[in-house]
Amino acid sequence: MAVPKRKTSPSRRNMRRSHHALGANSFVEDKDTGEMRRPHHVDLKTGMYNGRQIMTPKED
Length: 60
Fold this sequence. Notes:
Mean pLDDT: 90
Shape: elongated
Largest sheet: 2 strands, antiparallel
Oligomer: single chain
Helix content: 10-25%
Distance between the termini: 57 Å
Strand content: 5-15%
Low-confidence stretches: none
Radius of gyration: 22 Å
Number of strands: 4
Order of helices and strands: HEEEE
Number of helices: 1
């Protein structure tokens, strides 16, 4: 089993983790309803995805 020869310094450890931060979610405006939704996700209010009716619309 491989064992590190030296302890990883906090600087090097933190530089490795610099890409682990979460980015902000992206939203696009729906063409039909004008509401904001996540790209490549089903619109829960209308039940549409990629111009097709995928599921029954969610009722409030």
